[in-house]
């Protein structure tokens, strides 16, 4: 295994990294979007993808090239880069998609890897078995054995400087996904695609995609580059990046354009349903929906594909900026409001908050509490865990108001929803400088009460009083029985307690 990936900036599990592709003499910045090039169809030329859209890498299908006489001869004679007119990194698929679709292919891992090397691929793929979602466990285990053998075969092939993918399969059996990832991690291969998730995305099962990614990440080393195979819709880039996906590939830009579908970060619209073009890309600022509908079929397809690429690469840049600025979860939360299934995906991500917390930077810019889901973020989990290690004063007042004067408590700490108790000395550190709404919601209060409980459990002899601002009954019920809770206006003095 080569040391081909390095992280430069991170937020949650998302990272801006550098994938070194030796054969292309290219470093690809991640997260990266790889447009899919059908060798037989060129909606937008690879040269334009590189020059106009900033694509550093693309993906095409070596199995199709191998099985098409004129393409095979050209690729062997000219090499992929010359044939496609692209100087960036070229990833090639092996025929696994055809295997999943049609049930059989006429090539082995050794043969297809050797062919990929011969035609100049920079990142090659063995013949794994993409087990579909919800497959029976027995079938999944049988398929995984075949995939594991493919990875073993791939290690035995002389690939020179060409990087090789180690696909992670396992259907929707999360323990099998984690085990498959661990097996892939133990190989000498280089890039780790999470496969067979397109059916989940097509069915808007974003929560399942998140769970599958989380399982794969648990089995992989932290420095392993992860490719989410088939993730091409911009509405999910931020969510997938937050779960640790570094590479995406998209045929959606072209496939959707052929069906007059228009991509946005909030979903997909049909051209017939648009009165305005809600985008600032060059296509949308120089055309109206009527213009596009009136164009010849080939021209309309090209224009829609270009718009779809602009919005996809734009969202990728927005995701990178959020990682760099430490507010990726705020972007995910914004995108989650676009569709109920995306909200399911975000909530599933927060189910893995403890896993995320282990990699999330301890200090960022500003924590923005934007919805009830914010109460479950990794920063809150981290603070609650640290509360269990703090020594509380013998008598402690927790108050949402300003620090009291003249009160006969040993100390007064802030009570900050959703975090809970915060020693005054930490009040100006991240994340306790959080921007919070004036109207604190119930989940934030309940999370703060959980923080109080963690502190009291660790300090059973402490005398704790909570002076709260009209908390919901459900939040008060979460306080330990030993804690006195009073509205701020009725806060007791120690002598009155």
Ends apart, CA distance between termini: 66 Å
Give me the secondary-structure category.
alpha/beta
Count of discrete structural domains: 2
Number of helices: 21
Task: Give the DSSP E fraction (strand runs of 2 or more residues).
Answer: 15-25%
- Number of E-state strands: 18
Report on the architecture of this protein.
The structure is a single chain. The termini are far apart. The strands form 5 sheets. This protein has a 6-stranded parallel β-sheet. Strands 16-15-14-17-18 form a 5-stranded mixed β-sheet. The chain has 2 domains: 5-353, Queuine tRNA-ribosyltransferase-like (TIM Barrel, Alpha-Beta Barrel), CATH 3.20.20; 366-496, no CATH class. The chain contains 21 helices and 18 strands. The protein has helices at 46-53, 62-67, 69-78, 80-84, 96-102, 109-118, 137-156, 174-185, 198-202, 206-219, 237-242, 252-258, 282-286, 289-294, 297-325, 328-336, 340-351, 353-357, 378-387, 442-458, 473-476, and strands spanning 5-11, 14-21, 26-30, 32-37, 57-61, 89-93, 123-124, 163-164, 192-194, 226-228, 247-250, 261-264, 267-270, 395-399, 411-416, 420-422, 463-468, 484-487. It is an alpha/beta fold and 497 residues long. Strand 7 (123-124), helix 7 and strand 8 form a beta-alpha-beta unit. Helix 7 (137-156) packs parallel to helix 8 (174-185), helix 8 (174-185) runs parallel beside helix 10 and helix 10 packs parallel to helix 17.
């Amino acid at each position: 295994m080569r040391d081909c990936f390095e992280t430069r900036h991170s937020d949650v599990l998302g990272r801006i990294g550098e994938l070194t592709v030796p054969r292309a003499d290219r470093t690809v910045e991640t997260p990266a979007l790889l447009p899919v090039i059908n060798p037989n169809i060129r909606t937008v030329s690879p040269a334009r993808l590189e020059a106009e859209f900033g694509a550093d890498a693309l993906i095409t299908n070596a199995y199709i090239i191998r099985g098409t006489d004129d393409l095979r001869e050209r690729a062997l004679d000219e090499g992929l880069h010359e044939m496609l007119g692209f100087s960036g990194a070229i990833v090639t698929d092996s025929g696994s998609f055809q295997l999943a679709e049609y049930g059989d292919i006429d090539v082995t891992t050794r043969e297809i890897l050797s062919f990929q090397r011969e035609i100049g691929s920079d990142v090659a793929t063995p013949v794994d078995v993409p087990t579909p979602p919800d497959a029976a466990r027995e079938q999944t285990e049988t398929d995984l054995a075949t995939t594991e053998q493919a990875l073993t075969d791939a290690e035995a092939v002389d690939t020179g400087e060409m990087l090789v993918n180690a696909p992670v399969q396992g259907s929707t059996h999360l323990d099998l996904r984690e085990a498959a990832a661990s097996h892939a991690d133990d190989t000498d291969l280089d890039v780790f695609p999470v496969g067979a998730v397109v059916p989940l995305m097509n069915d808007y099962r974003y929560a399942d995609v998140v769970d599958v990614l989380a399982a794969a990440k648990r089995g992989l080393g932290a420095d392993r580059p992860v490719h989410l195979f088939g993730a091409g819709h911009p509405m999910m880039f931020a969510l997938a990046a937050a779960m640790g996906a570094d590479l995406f590939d998209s045929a959606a830009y072209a496939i959707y354009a052929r069906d007059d579908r228009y991509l946005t970060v909030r979903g997909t619209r049909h051209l017939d349903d648009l009165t305005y073009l809600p985008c600032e890309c060059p296509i949308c600022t120089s055309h109206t929906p009527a213009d596009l509908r009136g164009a010849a079929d080939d021209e309309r397809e090209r224009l829609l594909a270009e718009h779809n690429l602009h919005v996809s690469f734009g969202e990728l840049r927005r995701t990178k900026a959020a990682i760099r600025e430490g507010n990726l979860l705020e972007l995910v939360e914004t995108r989650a409001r676009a569709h109920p299934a995306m909200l399911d995906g975000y909530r599933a991500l927060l189910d893995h908050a403890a896993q995320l917390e282990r990699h999330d930077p301890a200090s960022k810019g500003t924590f923005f509490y934007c919805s009830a889901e914010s109460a479950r973020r990794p920063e809150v989990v981290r603070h609650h865990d640290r509360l269990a290690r703090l020594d509380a004063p013998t008598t402690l007042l927790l108050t949402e108001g300003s620090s009291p004067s003249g009160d006969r408590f040993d100390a007064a700490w802030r009570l900050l929803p959703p975090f809970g108790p915060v020693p005054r000395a930490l009040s100006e550190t991240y994340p306790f400088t959080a921007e919070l709404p004036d109207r604190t919601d119930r989940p934030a209060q309940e999370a703060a009460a959980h923080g109080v409980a963690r502190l009291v459990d660790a300090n059973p002899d402490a005398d704790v009083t909570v002076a709260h601002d009209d908390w919901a009954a459900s939040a008060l019920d979460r306080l330990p029985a030993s804690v006195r809770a009073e509205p701020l206006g009725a806060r007791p003095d120690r002598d009155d307690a």
